TrEMBL record:
<dbReference type="GO" id="GO:0005829">
    <property type="term" value="C:cytosol"/>
</dbReference>
<dbReference type="InterPro" id="IPR049560">
    <property type="entry name" value="MeTrfase_RsmB-F_NOP2_cat"/>
</dbReference>
<feature type="binding site">
    <location>
        <position position="338"/>
    </location>
    <ligand>
        <name>S-adenosyl-L-methionine</name>
    </ligand>
</feature>
<keyword id="KW-0489">Methyltransferase</keyword>
<comment type="similarity">
    <text>Belongs to the class I-like SAM-binding methyltransferase superfamily. RsmB/NOP family.</text>
</comment>
<dbReference type="GO" id="GO:0070475">
    <property type="term" value="P:rRNA base methylation"/>
</dbReference>
<keyword id="KW-0808">Transferase</keyword>
<dbReference type="InterPro" id="IPR023267">
    <property type="entry name" value="RCMT"/>
</dbReference>
<protein>
    <submittedName>
        <fullName>RsmB/NOP family class I SAM-dependent RNA methyltransferase</fullName>
    </submittedName>
</protein>
<dbReference type="GO" id="GO:0003723">
    <property type="term" value="F:RNA binding"/>
</dbReference>
<feature type="active site" description="Nucleophile">
    <location>
        <position position="391"/>
    </location>
</feature>
<feature type="domain" description="SAM-dependent MTase RsmB/NOP-type">
    <location>
        <begin position="174"/>
        <end position="449"/>
    </location>
</feature>
<dbReference type="Pfam" id="PF01189">
    <property type="entry name" value="Methyltr_RsmB-F"/>
</dbReference>
<dbReference type="InterPro" id="IPR001678">
    <property type="entry name" value="MeTrfase_RsmB-F_NOP2_dom"/>
</dbReference>
<dbReference type="GO" id="GO:0009383">
    <property type="term" value="F:rRNA (cytosine-C5-)-methyltransferase activity"/>
</dbReference>
<keyword id="KW-0949">S-adenosyl-L-methionine</keyword>
<dbReference type="InterPro" id="IPR029063">
    <property type="entry name" value="SAM-dependent_MTases_sf"/>
</dbReference>
Length: 449
């Protein structure tokens, strides 16, 4: 447990041990929240560093701190209307009590204490919800009443500029926000085993995995955080963590066992490994291969470690060192461009990013995306495939980039795709988080005539 700072102790009379701990947690959460907002660094990173230094926190402390902090960001669009100071004042305690209610946190002795501290100020008179708040609408109504603020509305939970850069009909906005305000499960991909073998293997480590209804190599590991390094299946490369939305990309690529693929923005290789796994599952002696590139060297090293863990050969590196193509022209059956983007599709897992970024995060990458796609396209053979993907939900980074590319490169033609979750026929496929409880993604597949 962290030491409480003197300021909240002085201001609020903590009498019981639970109240004292609640103050101490509040202090830590406030410190972390302020660091994220001031330094504009991802909450995951700030929390990770904090726990590395402050080893005295037990697993329960970590859970209360981490989940309350992330919940603060998830509901910040509402909370920022009441907590306008930078102090641990009653409105901060009210915010802590509110998120515990909205997310049905089970540490009621602490949330009760936060509510009592908040209610020391005349403006608050918070009471627990009378029934469980299951839908986003019920959460919104409860808060409107609890704070006596009828102006609180669902679409405030994402920044205003979000609606300017995504194209969501008004009647679908609720579903988008509802998904954004809940956590998706941890999705894994069966890499060297089949789905059932992996489920059995995980059972030995007391992990209950559930097969995805959509892909025969995908499974959900639920919502509890997992120490991957302690799991045998992970150590042996039998599984990789990969969001189900992200897995759509490899499904759309559909690499054949004898094909040559180039993953132009491979990062640490989430998609490279998926593509290679698909080839090897078709044929353990697959003659095809994957070349992986990135402008950053470190992730490529990580990719090779992951490939080694899985026992995969047939993957080689070709780092981008300049604008020149790091591979041969017209040499690949398939080229995947998983382009750098705003990552708005991953806001469910990183709720802080919606308050740290601004509209420019979506606007300022279009030129780079088109440039990478255009340069990468030179490596596609005749009749070869070119797949463009992002984890953005904005047409500015998605459809507009693909359309600009097609206008300048008429030898490429869009393919019709079946949306794996909704079964719609589309040429530009957006995975919305609410479709199948995933992150958001975009993918389009072109063929070179
Ligand atoms: C969306 S991430 C890739 C994620 C990765 N494909 C995966 O599945 O794990 C985009 C990657 O593009 C890389 N990148 C950024 N600018 C680039 C450029 N100009 N050329 C090539 N790669 C670039 C980034 O370093 C980052 O690793």
């Amino acid at each position: 447990m962290v030491e409480p700072s003197s300021s909240p102790q002085d201001a609020f009379q903590a009498e019981t041990p639970a109240q004292k701990r609640a103050l101490s947690y509040s202090n830590t959460i406030h410190q972390l929240f302020s660091s994220v907002m001031e330094q504009k660094l991802p909450a995951d990173r700030i929390v990770g560093e904090y726990f590395r230094v402050h080893k005295k926190h037990g697993s329960k402390d970590r859970r209360v701190i981490r989940e309350s902090l992330f919940a603060m960001f998830r509901w910040w669009g509402w909370l920022k209307q009441i907590h306008t100071s930078e102090q641990q004042d009653p409105s901060w305690f009210a915010s802590l009590a509110i998120v515990a209610e909205l997310e049905d946190h089970k540490w009621t002795q602490f949330s009760d204490a936060w509510r009592e501290f908040a209610n020391q100020a005349a403006e608050f008179n918070l009471t627990p919800a009378e029934q469980e708040l299951t839908s986003l609408q019920s959460k919104c109504s409860w808060l409107q009443n609890a704070l006596n603020r009828p102006s609180i509305a669902v679409n405030q939970l994402v920044p205003d500029w979000f609606w300017q850069v995504v194209d969501v009909a008004e009647d679908k906005q609720l579903a988008v926000v509802e998904a954004m305000c809940s956590r998706p499960p941890i999705w894994a991909r069966a890499q060297t085993l089949n789905q059932q073998q992996l489920i059995n293997s995980l059972k030995k480590d007391d992990i209950t995995a559930v097969a995805s209804e959509f892909f025969d190599d995908a499974l959900s590991l639920g919502h509890k955080s997992i120490n991957l390094n302690a799991i045998g299946a992970y150590q042996r490369g039998e599984l990789e963590i990969q969001d189900l939305g992200s897995q759509v990309i490899g499904q759309i690529c559909q690499p054949q066992a004898d094909e040559q693929w180039w993953d132009t923005c491979s990062g640490a290789g989430g998609k490279t490994l998926q593509l290679r796994s698909k080839m090897l599952k078709q044929n353990p002696n697959a003659t095809g291969s994957i070349t992986s590139s990135d402008i950053r060297r470190k992730p490529l090293e990580e990719l090779m470690k992951r490939a080694k863990r899985a026992g995969f050969t047939g993957i080689s590196l070709a780092p981008w060192k300049s604008d020149a193509l790091p591979v041969k022209e017209a040499a690949f059956d398939g080229v995947l461009v998983d382009a750098p983007c705003s990552c708005t599709g991953t806001w469910r897992r990183n709720p802080d990013m919606r308050w740290l970024d601004d509209k420019n995060v979506v606007l300022d990458k279009q030129e780079l995306q088109l440039d990478i796609l255009s340069r990468s396209a030179k490596a596609v053979k005749a009749q070869g495939k070119l797949v463009y993907a992002t984890c953005s939900l904005s047409p500015i980074e998605n459809e507009q980039v693909v359309n600009a590319f097609l206008a300048a490169n008429p030898e490429f033609e869009l393919q019709t795709l079946r949306h794996p979750f909704t079964q719609e026929s589309v040429t530009m496929l957006t995975v919305w988080p609410q479709d199948a409880n995933t992150d958001g993604m975009f993918v389009a597949k072109m063929i070179k005539r």
